[in-house]
Amino acid sequence: MPSPAVSPERAPMRRMEPLAHHTTMRIGGPAEFFYEPQRPEDLSALLTRLEAEGVPARLLGGGANTLAPDGGVPGAVIHTGTLRRIFREGERLRAWPGVTLPQLVRTALDAGLGGMDRLVGVPGQVGGALAMNAGSAAWGIWDEVEEITVWEPGGAVRRLLPADVGPAYRDGRLRGRVVLEALFKLRPEDPAALKARQDDFLRRKNATQPVTLSSAGCAFKNPPGDSAGRLVDAAGLKGARRGGAEISAVHANFIVNRGGGGVPNATAADVRALVEMAETAVAEKFGVRLERELVIWPEPLRPLGP
Ligand code: EPU
Question: What percent of the chain is predicted at pLDDT more than 70?
Answer without folding.
Answer: 97
